[in-house]
Every structure is written in C-alpha cells, then in structure tokens.
Amino acid sequence: MNIDYKLVFLGVMLAVEVALLVCTIVTFRKKGDLAISLRKVCVSIFLAMIAYALYVTSINEHHALIWMCLFSLGIDWILLMFMEYIISYTDSRFRGRVVLLLSYIGVIADSVSMACNIFYRHAFSVHLIHDTRYGIDAYQMQNSTVFYRAHLGFCYFLSAIVLIWLIQKMISTISFYRKKYILIILGFLLLLAADGISITIKTPFNLSIIFYGIVSVVLTYFSFSYIPRSLMNNVLKIVSRELNNMVTCFDQDGRLVYANKAAKNLVNKTHQLDWLSSIYREWRDRYSDNDSEEDGTYWEEEIMIEEKHTIFQFEAKRLFDDRQQYIGVYITAYDRTEEILKHQQELEEAQAKIARESRFWANISHEMRTPANAILGMNEMILRDETNEELRKYAEYIKVSTETLIMLINDVLDFSKINAKSMAILPKEYEILHMVKAIYAMALPKAQKKSLELKIELDPFLPKRLLGDELRLRQVIMNLISNAIKYTASGSVSLRLFGEQRFEDYYLHVEVEDTGIGIKKENIALLFQAYERIDEARVHGIQGTGLGLNICKQLLEQMESKLEVQSEYNKGSLFSFRVKQPKMSDEYIPDFKEYLNMQEAHELTYEIPEDAEGKILYVDDNEMNCEVFHALTKKTHFEIYDAHNGSEALKITKKHQFDLIFMDHLMPEMNGDEAFVMMRSDAENLNHDTPVIMLTANVGEDLREKFLNMGFADYLTKPLSPEKLAETFIDWM
C-alpha cells in the first residue's frame, strides 16, 4: 500500500494548527502578562506552521524559497516569544528584561538577513528533488553558507538561554512547581531532538514544527489549569511588601524560596538568610507530629532577638494548592516587644494597685482588731481572777460579743477585699490532713458548745499533698461549717472530702451537710446574694452579716469552681463544690480516725507554768496590748521588757539578750518584719539568733508562710489566745 507522506504530514500539521488556534483563543480570554506572552508564542508558531505548509506545497522553487525564508525567521521569533514567556512565568524582572532586550536585537538582525535571502540567496537556496526513500518530490535547502550557519547558531543560542533559565528556576523553586518546569524542559528538549532527527536522517520535512505546536498546546494547559507562579509571586510580593511583619516561604524540603523586605531587614542586621532556613528546619522537626489547626497553623513560638532587644512571635502555616496538594510552608513573624512591655506595665500597675489595697485592708484590719484584742485580753484577766459569779457572767457576755464582733469584722473585710479585687488565689503545695486538722480544731469547740456531733469523713485514697490555695479553701470550708453549726439546733454537722481523677486533672470534692433548719426551694437562689438574710423572722437572733456564703461563692469562682446547694426545709442542707487541685503526691493520707483517737488520748490543756523563768521582749505600739501580755504572764517568773516600735526593739536587743521575743507586725517608725531583718543581719546584735514570734492582727492573709520563710520562729494572730500563748512558751522556752 502506497502512503502519501506529504498528505499525512500536512494532515498532522492541520490538526495541530486547529488545537493551536483554540489555545490562541483561550489566551485572548485571559488577562495578565503571562496570557499575553503565551498568546505571542501561539501566534508565532501558528504563522510559522502556515509558512512551512506553504513551503511544502509551493508550485515552484522561488515560492518555496520565499516561504522557507519566512519560516526560518519565524523560528527566531518563536524562540524569542518562548524566552519572553519563560521570563514572565518565572517572574524574572530586571535580569530577564536585559537578556530579552539583547535577544530582540539579535532576532531583528537575523530576521533581516533571512528576509534578504529571498533576493540575494546569500544564506541558502531551495531546489525540488525526488526523495527515493519516501517516493515523493520535496523541496530541500541547498548551498547553505556561513550566514545560514550563523542563523542556526543564533537559534541554538536562544534555545540554550531558555533551557539554562528553566533549569535554574527548576532548582530554586518548590517541589510542586518543579514538576511543571521539568515538563516544560522536556517539551523544549523534544523540539531540539525533533530538529536534530530531521537533520541527521534527512527527512523530507522538518518534524520540529509539529512539536512546536504540540508544546505550545501543553504550555497553555499547564499555565491556566494550575495557579501561575507569577501570579502567586506578584500577589505575595504586593501584600507582603506592604506589611511590617516578616513573611517567608519555604518549600517541602525546607529551602527558603521567598523573604519579604521586613524579613531581610531583620535577618541581615542579625544573621544570614540561611538562619531562617535553619530555624525553620529545627521547628519542622520539633513539631512534625502536630496536626494543623482549622486555619492551617501547626506551630507558634516566641523568639528573643538579642541583638535588637526585641521579641518576635513566629507562626507557621502549611501551604496547599487549589488541588489540596501540600507545597510548602509560610512563616510570619511580628514584633511583640511593645505589646509585651505594655502588658508587663499593665500587670505591674495592677499588682501595685493590689499591693496598695492589700496594705490598706491590712491596716484597717490591724486598727479594728487591735482594740478588740485589748478588750478580750482584759476580759480574760477578769475571768481568771474574778470570783464574783455575776461579774463573771458579764465578762462571758463581753467575750462572746467581742468574738462575734471580730467575726463580723472579718466578713466585712473579706467581702470588701474581694470586691476590690485585692484578694488573690495563691496555689501552693499543701497537706490535706493538715488543713482538715486545722478546720476540726476550730469547728469542734463551736459544735460542742451547741452539743452537736462534728463528723469528718475522708476518702482513704485522697493523695497526701495537693496543689492549691489552702488558706482560701480552708476559709470556704470553715465558713460553710460555721454556717451549718449556726443554723443547726440539734443533730450533727458533717464534712466529707473525696477525690476524682478526670483524665489528666484531679478534683477535690467537698461536702458540708447539717441536720439544721433547711432552706425553702424558692429561697435557695437568694442565698448567695450580698446583704440578704432569708427567712428573717425565723433566723432572728442568729448573728451574722449575710456575707458568708457570698464570700464563699466569690472565692470558689476565683478557683474556677461553683457552690451547689441541696436542702429540705426543716430537715437540713447539703453544700458541696468540686475544685481542681493537682496531685503532688502518690502517697495516701493517714487515717483521720487514728489522729482523733490520739488527740483524745493526749488531750492537753496548755497553761503557762507558774515557775517558768526567762527574759522576754514584747514589742507592740499599743499600750493596752502590752498590759494584756503582762496580765497573761503575771503569775510566772518571766522578766518582761517592752518596746513600742522596731527602732526601740533594735536598741534594746543590742543591750540585753532575751530568751524569746514577741514582735508586732505593723508599728510606727519601723515595722516588726523590718526590725527582724536588721536584727538578723547584724552579727553583733546580742539577739542575732533569738527565736522571734510574729504577732499580727491581719487574719485571712497568707502571712504565716511568708513570716516563716523570713526566719520567724512562729506566727500568732491577735487577739492572743491564752492557750496558744502558753503553747508557744512551752515550744520555745
């Protein structure tokens, strides 16, 4: 079967030209530099293919020469348009424009040479020959000269520039776009291979022109079916250039492919650009297991740039193309120094305000409790020495009334401090049993006075130590127990503590239950309101401010907890809450019942031995407090010295050595803690190592630990309890 190779070749050319025409129409529907440069490629190939088709079908050698010259100069323009397209696609600005300008000059010169060949035939001529291999007549180029070889050399030079440009961009780009560069390079190599095959085996037709058309169709598809790199770069540059924040992009392999002006300014003043790649790779390895958040963020970190004395917040997000293929990461960083400094300043101001208010409430507490201390102290002397029953009865009334007054003062001060936001929660490690013992010791006398049973039930699997604000927790529990005792006429008050592990968090559950008067359901909502006393007629005669439960509620809210209430009218109430307290020990608490049995077996009534001897310094600015102290110790053989402020105490301690010193906290001229520090730091002071007991009227503050950490031997709150004072003498004398 005879095959008309010329007809087959022209048919293939026609099919490619139709596809090329469609691509050209597509480029006219697109906007932007990339579409324009690709349109020029398509048009130049389309015209060159027409010129070659006319060359193949020419009716004589002169016409064939004209079309071959036009085809040859068309190849120049095709390569030039390819170069312009590649420069636009790779977004190469200055350097690319310079190369393109020089190439334009070369192409114009070569085009003039090829056009002149029509008339002078100085480069080549065309003759019709019969190709016996294919059995067809075809025009062949003959008599080529140095001008034609210069034309070929220039075409290969342009091809080499395009290839070098593509390879360079392929190496520097991210992996996803590298695939497209490889396809473009392969297409371009295919053109050169087709041209080389045509020359080597001397085919009757130049096969490369068909591949020029095929490659342009493929380029059109890849340029408009993927996000153009030039568009990505242009958008990124326009946006990031206007930002003061640092913006950088990395490919999947951790190579830096983009850094905006802010990033370069930051890095060039401190490090090299490689530093950005190194910290990115370090973070990528560290956070490799992180799943991206909904916004794509998979790690954030702050870095201190010491050379600039600034703190930058770095944030990394994964980049995906429109087909959700991972193509890299972009990192933004902004200067948080001013924000952090402002936050620190606000924090310092808030802390200073809290400190001022704390000092204010401490002074108020001191001033209000000092006269109460004197009243109780003097009254204690009456109860000790007076034998007249009527006078003793009056003294008991004074004692009860003063203790009630102190309780009311404490409630009002705590409520005021909470509302002033000057009462902070200070989590510290504490022992549960230590807290429960303290609560039991305070609540038991109140319960016994009303003939109530005080029950303590502890989960045996409670950890020995927890992390929380023991003082505030104890205050809440004690308030609830005091309330329960206050509103229970007979029966019992129970305290129950148990723990609960929920995932990584540990919770302490607290319940206080009584058999008291109970609360109507409609009144439960009013329980936690300040200044409210529900069922006023029924509770008339029970003393209180109505602030206790409100204080509990607000303290628990600060601990991210909530007070729950269950109550049955005339039968009793159950108050409970759950508070997060991280475990600090795997050891369980000791048995509380054993502790109670030991306490009962070793019940002691502390009294100061009448034969006690020693030299005592009592430092207090209040004369009545001094009188009370002297009265409480008058039956002993103590030699007692008085000082009325810290300065006086320092002078006396330099002259006399004491066995024990009692030091008031707040005094004129010099406070007790200041005097203590100066005494301890003075190696020549005779009382450099003497035990010092801190006295303060500031209850409710976390002062015990503070004073013990300072070096005080112990801490006593006013009003002084005769039993506690006796216990102190026994411990330290």
UniProtKB/TrEMBL annotation:
Domain Response regulatory: 615-733
Coiled-coil residue spans: none
PROSITE patterns: HIS_KIN (PS50109), RESPONSE_REGULATORY (PS50110)
Enzyme Commission number: 2.7.13.3
Magnesium in keyword set: no
Any GO CC annotation of this UniProt entry: plasma membrane
Record's keyword terms, sorted: Kinase, Membrane, Phosphoprotein, Transferase, Transmembrane, Transmembrane helix, Two-component regulatory system
GO molecular function: histidine phosphotransfer kinase activity; phosphorelay sensor kinase activity
InterPro entries the record matches: CheY-like_superfamily, HATPase_C_sf, HATPase_dom, His_kinase_dom, HisK_dim/P_dom, HisK_dim/P_sf, PAS_4, Sig_transdc_His_kin-like_C
One Pfam entry name: Response_reg
Transmembrane portions of the chain: 6-28, 40-58, 64-87, 99-120, 146-168, 180-201, 207-227
UniProt catalytic activity: ATP + protein L-histidine = ADP + protein N-phospho-L-histidine
Residues the record lists as 4-aspartylphosphate modifications: 664
Sequence ranges assigned to domain Histidine kinase in this UniProt record: 363-583
Function recorded in the entry: May play the central regulatory role in sporulation. It may be an element of the effector pathway responsible for the activation of sporulation genes in response to nutritional stress. Spo0A may act in concert with spo0H (a sigma factor) to control the expression of some genes that are critical to the sporulation process.
The family this protein is said to belong to: In the N-terminal section; belongs to the phytochrome family.
UniProt-recorded name of the protein: Circadian input-output histidine kinase CikA
Originating organism: Agathobacter ruminis
